[in-house]
Amino acid sequence: MNIKYKMKERVRRILLKKEELKNKERESKELECVHYWRIGPIQNGLSVGICKKCNESKEFQNTFLESHSWGKKKDNTKNDQ
Ligand SMILES: [Zn+2]
To answer: Is the dihedral of CA 73, 76, 79, 81 positive or negative?
Structure first.
């Protein structure tokens, strides 16, 4: 009668391990994503960006967008002499 208990215990542990792995996988996936935001048009001072990689969406404020120069780099190294 002890065997039944042992079997149950074993199954339970396997299931726990599986769940653990699943959670780890999910966590690392979230951590790994360096979001690549595709920013939509600005509406009412807000713009919705969708990550190209994981499809997460996020609202960006107009001010946030303005403070970041997307694609435009200030060229300080240029010599204008
Ligand atoms: Zn992402």
So the answer is: positive
